[in-house]
Amino acid sequence: MKSIKDFNPNAISRKKLVVDGIMVGIVSGFCSVSYRLALQYISHFRFKFLSDLSDSKIYIWFGILLISSFIVHLLLKFEPMSSGSGIPQIQGEMHGVFDTDSKKIILSKFVGGSLASLGGLSLGREGPSIQIGANAAKIWAKLMKRTPSETGAIMSAGASAGLSAAFNAPISGVIFVLEELHKTYSSLLLIPALVAAVVADFISKNIFGLAPAFHFEVAEVIQLSDYYHLLIFAIIAALIGILFNHTLLKVQDIFNAIKIKKPIVLAFVFCVSGLIAIYTVDLSGGGHSLIESLLNADKAFSLLIILLVGKLLFTSFCYGSSVQGGIFFTRIGTWRIGRKYIF
Predict the structure, then answer these.
(1) 334: exposed, middle or buried (C-beta count within 10 Å: 0-12, 13-18, 19+)?
(2) 20 to 30 A Cα–Cα from 234, which one of 34, 65, 93, 343?
(3) Hey, is 124 helix, strand or coil?
(4) What is the DSSP annotation of 144-208?
(5) DSSP structure class, residue 121
(6) pLDDT for 270-303, tens place per residue?
(7) pLDDT, tens digit, for every residue of 9-54?
(8) Shortest CA distance to 103 belongs to which of 58, 142, 50?
(9) Residues 6+ apart with CB under 8 A from 250
(10) Residues 173, 142: contact at Cβ < 8 Å?
(11) Angle between helices 187-208 and 14-51 (to 10 degrees)
């Protein structure tokens, strides 16, 4: 059988596009929404548990961290391709680099990502939701005995549905598929991706409500005379993005060079994260609560700088450990595949 890298949109039956899009939206949307819901409850449990931390609960907390790190280690041995955000793995599969076991990926990603959230690691749901959605779609494609070209389109639709469910943003899911996974436009890619994203968004909104993932209230419109501030900010943000990119790669290289056994490394990562979750709540977790706190409260400029540097370093530290969970940073994944690094 040909691999997905031989993807040929013209070989796809147009009659199946809408049906596959609807079914993938239901299947992938349900899986991604379940993952998002699990992270939401786990994050709430972590904040509540650590808000009133007695001496005895500290021992329980670090016991939880050590057990979680060992389970994550077992899951990474069970399915190595579940490590990190998952976006590079999906891109690699689209290029025919490898063929992953979808059931193992979903199980390992779901449980491992949940445990990472429990430990307060600075990892989000975006990349994992894309990988879970794409692999749920791949299972559907196999059940329906679709061709490799059809499977490529279906997995792309699953990735679109996963991102849509993660953010309540169906257009973002579609653009991600066209711009990042395939870097081309085709109606035979667009139709199932768009249908799946809308269906997944419908499922997500029925569970999480109609409000967007990030709600910004604009109290005052920026005047045209002040637009130069946006240009300055764009330059600063771009420089920080470049620094973040290089920091992520460097930390990954450091972790790969460490000769200590993986269970010990993961136990160290979880314990460091556990300490940060106790003493610096703003830095722990995926960052959604941090963004909301910045919107709803005035913070000193010096504190904002500390949070920026701390979040950059802590996220790089967590991501470099290859724990399940990740960041929505697709360019780094593509570049690493080119160098034969897929995580």
Answers:
(1) middle
(2) 343
(3) strand
(4) TT--HHHHHHHHHHHHHHHHHHHHT-HHHHHHHIIIIIISS--HHHHHHHHHHHHHHHHHHHHHH
(5) -
(6) 999 999 988 887 788 877 777 767 766 666 677 7
(7) 555 566 678 888 999 999 999 999 999 999 989 988 998 898 888 8
(8) 142
(9) 316
(10) no
(11) 40
Give whole-number Cα distances, 158 to 27, 94, 211, 229, 272, in Å.
8, 13, 23, 39, 34
Position 196, amino acid: A
How many whole angstroms separate alpha carbon 277 and alpha carbon 195?
39
CA angle 242–157–114, rounded 5-degree value: 65
List residues bridging with 124 in a β-sheet.
326
Which one-letter amino acid corresponds to residue 161? Answer: A
Say whether pLDDT at 61 is over 90: yes
Residue with tokens 């667009």: 190
Tokens of 277: 């979750």
CB 192 within 8 A of CB 155: no
